[in-house]
Write a structure and sequence with these properties.
Two copies of one chain form a homodimer. The first copy, chain A, is of the alpha+beta class. Chain A contains 14 helices and 18 strands. Chain A has a six-stranded mixed beta sheet, sandwiched between helices. In chain A, strands 11-13-9-14 form a four-stranded antiparallel beta sheet, with helices on one face. In chain A, strands 4-5-18 form a three-stranded antiparallel beta sheet. Chains A and B meet through strand 9, strand 10, helix 7, helix 10 and strand 11 of A and strand 9, strand 10, helix 7, helix 10 and strand 11 of B.
């Protein structure tokens, strides 16, 4: 039976690529209300494909935000049940002028498919869907019981996911979750991810004059919110790259000597990484390696800030206000709400004279840091499959990013999450010219088919 | 003869307001190439009106940028010749969502005409044009010789004005310039302006990674250009509001005790000013009064800065770059190029690790500070007319803003510039809901007619 699946997948590679291009042509940008119709269209596209694949109980589940899509196939008695997770929403395409081809008309160039969301997460989430379809088309059944949960709010911090999982806990019950989101570390070495960072965030605004003022007539008389913003933001870090917010590091579990040695043993090449990101130099918290800073140390990053006139030419203005958006990546045992509160206190304590502070703190992005046990059977299966597909031992790596879902699945369903994505961390998601390596689509289809097969055999 | 003029102007008030509304409906935004057609339309509108008024030699003079409009009436032998200056270009209307009515569909509400450019400078520059028309319609002649020069690049630093004046120096020869630009200090007290601040400016960009990076995967590894921007901008001032750029104050001519006493004697009310601008507090260079800081002390203001994601929602990104636009207001004896060079050196010396600096320095905004002699006949005439129109002694005030034209007229034509504008400094030019007091349009028409009459009598 399984042999047929691999032949089927092999024969239909072009169709799989075509499906991904069609899926990624839908501009499902979750953060911007202007894309409401495209979000609905993407959810429906996923549901239609699950029906075509032969899955049962396919449902577009409405939420207070964007809908999730659920499906199941539960006709393998005695075999494990896994909950497949992915997301169909994508980041905004800005800045548009930096794209070499239309972000929503995906284009293959030199073995890479370029388009918004192809790597994060439409390519990776389409893989289990097409693997299921291949099993159904060739064998009429799956080797294990599978439940699919594809959400539409991952890029905005998954605000509806917690109530949704809580409301459908029985329906979502599984032995563990297998996430199609969470990229592999690098293209040359297959890897399994054993931890991810948590997150918290907020936005703030500084207000000076009640309106924009002419910088000639009024310059010198009142505070410029841009100067105040600069002072406040500059004060969030020390010159050596540490976060200057009081208490920020209080709950950080420092790495053991063993953990630091494990990380140091990974083939992480600072020079190669620097070339990859194209920065003039590496920079970050003093006293830690680059890998440590990216994976196991917390950060505070301003994701956007601005005010005044930023267009072409000039406008001699003292703006009435200025804003900044901040997110932090958290590590055990930092708590999102506690860190956010400490940042708010810092901002309040350090707001310069002449401006007022307003903090917008939704909390929708909050996520605890996550770590999976080393001996988890789903993690072992992932390592086995990667060894078989790539012919070498997968690395055990950490993840700098955040997957709130793993924390939710553990807390609400009592299960762990194995990350099994075939995107790669260098594929410019959240940036212009996001791409997905076409070969990874084919690798992923084979690997997911194999994963279910092994799991059934082990089970 | 003059009596007829005043009656004529009085009778045609509605027509004058209608003319201004028509003029201000043309979106002549000089800084943004998208408004190219409107710029040409506005220049032609001015030229047509000058022809209708009966002026001679009307010409739209092309430049490397936006055209200027010239006209003359030189049939008053023995009488002085004055060069009337104004500008028909306006600031961009952003932020559009803060306007209570369409910036380019001017609307009268409670005695104020709201619209972009009505106060800066379309209302004030229309006044001498309509005053000339009134003289021609009633007397068939003007009391003095008049040359009109209306430019279309004032809001972008008048880059074409210097070559234009240099190329037409003989044609523009006059006894002095009378500027319809340069607002009066306040509505309650008529005033003559005796000095204006100079200007210089530049823009800079900090670059980190070659592309926007995911703040989860990469956060901690490379410098965030927004953090670097904040640090660099924060370092441009000391906490007590002084400019921290080395040498910035070296050439500043400190005020004499007499000058400080003169300024202190003006009815400047800090509390009233604070209410007017609506800021939480006044703020600026320690050791100087608010009036001194606005008029006779130099400033360095960031007019716009930003980077990363500033739209709705969030985007967890470490941007590849960040930018800031800076302008300075200068006082005697600071020199624009010298100050700009000192700022560039400061930026170079203080650029934080992990980012690279690029400075864009056009120099197009450079203007020397200006001061007119106290005993200038044109200044005395202005004071006489204001005393007649408003029934009280005009104040002698300074101007925080910059009129590069006064420096150019002195350097290239050897003449001084008298500011005789009927806009008021509180009319929100360069901000949303710019307005012009309708009564000032009528005051201005009477005052300009009277100015020419007095000048002819004095000459």
């Amino acid at each position: 039976m399984a042999g047929d699946v691999y032949a089927y997948l092999e024969a239909r590679r072009d169709q799989a690529l075509h499906d991904l291009i069609e899926f990624a042509s839908i501009a499902s940008v979750s953060t911007d209300p202007a894309y409401q119709a495209e979000m609905a269209a993407a959810a429906q596209w996923v549901a239609d494909r699950l029906v075509q694949a032969g899955m049962d109980a396919v449902e577009v589940i409405e939420t207070d935000g964007h809908p999730a899509v659920y499906a199941e196939w539960l006709h393998a008695p005695g075999a494990p049940t896994i909950l497949v997770y992915g997301h169909y929403d994508v980041q905004p395409p800005d800045p548009l002028d930096k794209w070499r081809s239309d972000p929503f008309a995906p284009q293959v160039r030199e073995g890479r498919l370029y388009g918004r969301g192809v790597s994060d997460d439409k390519g990776p989430m389409l893989i289990p869907l097409l693997a299921a379809q291949a099993y159904m088309a060739t064998a009429g059944r799956l080797p294990v019981n599978v439940k699919f949960l594809f959400e539409g709010e991952e890029e905005v911090g998954s605000p509806s996911l917690e109530p949704l999982i809580a409301a459908h806990a029985a329906r979502l019950a599984a032995d563990f979750a297998l996430s199609a989101d969470g990229a592999m570390w690098r293209i040359d070495d297959p890897s399994v991810t054993v931890s991810s960072r948590g997150m918290t965030g907020l936005e703030f605004r500084l207000r000076g004059a009640a309106k924009d003022l002419h910088s000639g007539r009024h310059g010198g008389a009142v505070a410029n919110p841009l100067h105040a913003l600069a002072e406040l933001v500059a004060g969030l870090h020390t010159p050596d790259g540490r976060v200057a917010v009081a208490g920020f590091y209080d709950d950080v579990a420092e790495l053991s000597a063993v953990e630091r040695a494990e990380l140091a043993a990974l083939p992480f090449d600072d020079a190669a990484y620097l070339r990859e990101v194209g920065a003039p130099a590496l920079f970050g918290e003093a006293g830690y390696t680059t890998a440590e800073r990216m994976w196991v140390r917390p950060t505070l990053e301003v994701n956007g800030m601005g005010g005044g006139y930023q267009g072409a030419g000039s406008k001699t203005v003292i703006p009435g206000e200025a804003m900044a958006k901040i997110t932090c990546r958290l590590v055990p045992n930092q708590r999102p709400a506690d860190i956010a509160a400490k940042i708010v206190r810092h901002l309040e304590d350090h707001t310069p004279p002449g401006v007022t502070l307003e903090v917008m703190r939704g909390g929708g992005h909050d996520a605890l840091p996550y770590r999976i046990p080393d001996d988890h059977p789903g993690l072992r299966a992932a390592a086995d499959v990667l060894r078989a597909v790539y012919g070498r031992e997968p690395l055990k790596v950490r993840m700098g990013g955040t997957l709130p879902v793993s924390e939710l699945f553990r807390r609400l369903l009592g299960i762990d999450t194995v990350f099994f994505s075939f995107s790669t961390a260098d594929e410019d998601f959240h940036a212009p010219n996001e791409f997905f390596r076409v070969q990874r689509l084919y690798d992923g289809l084979r690997a997911w088919a194999m994963y279910w097969e092994r799991l059934a055999a082990a089970g």
